[in-house]
Amino acid sequence: MPLLAMTHTHDTEQRLADLEIKASFNEDLLDQLNLTIYRQQQHIDWLLQEVRRLGQQQPEGGGAAPRSLRDELPPHY
How far is Cα 58 from Cα 74, in angstroms, rounded to an integer? Predict the structure, then answer.
């Protein structure tokens, strides 16, 4: 086999090995990103449940009764 053909075959094998390594790293990264997105969605769902729960605890009027500024004065006045 000529030297040029052997060099070409070796270069091709090296390039293929490099691509396989990159593909493996990309698969790992994709798995990590998917897990991160899954956990973030779980957290978002939990926060939405908390917002609903807090909304149910709020009085029916939708807000507090109007307060007087005199009610907000410190007790020593």
Answer: 26
Reported as half-sphere exposure (CB side, CA atoms, 13 A), residue 17 has a value of 6
Which DSSP category does 61 fall into?
Answer: T
Domain of 31 in residue numbering reads as 25-54
Identity at 54, one-letter amino acid code: L
Intra-chain end-to-end CA distance of the chain, in Å: 102
**Tens digit of each residue's pLDDT, the chain (77 residues):** 666 667 888 899 999 999 999 999 999 999 999 999 999 999 999 999 999 999 999 776 555 566 676 777 777 75
Count of domains forming the chain: 1
In a domain, 8, yes or no: no
